[in-house]
Amino acid sequence: NAGVTQTPKFQVLKTGQSMTLQCAQDMNHNSMYWYRQDPGMGLRLIYYSASEGTTDKGEVPNGYNVSRLNKREFSLRLESAAPSQTSVYFCAGMPSGTVNEQFFGPGTRLTVL
Amino acid sequence: QKEVEQDPGPLSVPEGAIVSLNCTYSNSAFQYFMWYRQYSRKGPELLMYTYSSGNKEDGRFTAQVDKSSKYISLFIRDSQPSDSATYLCAILNAGNMLTFGGGTRLMVKP
Fold first, then answer.
1. Residues of chain B with C-beta less than 8 angstroms from the C-beta of A4
2. What is the enclosing helix (H) or strand (E) of A24?
3. CB contact under 8 A, A106 and B101
4. Mean of pLDDT values over B86-98
5. What is the spatial distance between Cα B14 and Cα B104, in angstroms, rounded to a whole number?
6. What is the average pLDDT score of chain A?
7. A39: CB partners within 8 A, 6+ apart
8. Mean pLDDT of B16-29
């Protein structure tokens, strides 16, 4: 039982490049989330998926797209990376019937030059 | 005004000290209050949560909510070097989403 996994762990991009951050969970979570974490800003919600086949915008969705491929996987795509997207990205999953107890992955550190 | 405010620290204390970590929030409608702990280069993990006002205790940790002043606290008794981490308060907002404070970095020195 690996919990929530994220790949890659680190990535360096040039401005304008695209990439997809992968997230998978084996805890049968219905809801999944993508956050970014910047110094002093806490975690800010980018997108979330309340169930397979649905996605919704969070607080900071601009410049990102997501896909809930199946119940296990929730990917985050940067179509044209910008230096402002340099951050640590966390994926989280939440089981049904809890008070929003989210389980986080280890994070992806992204630098955009 | 941010929905949740938290002093970023760092807060440095000697081993065995009592630690007090605090957050303020702006919306009096919030009901669920959570504390997450995040070790360096790791994802956050839920430490404990409280509903509405009052205290909740779990071992050396006590979470306290004062809704009249919109203030939440986490107390750590007999702090240990292994408690060194960033502590994030989080509040469940009206859309059933978590709003996080910026985190307080705690260092417990042996």
1. 43
2. strand A19-25
3. no
4. 86
5. 16
6. 92
7. none
8. 92
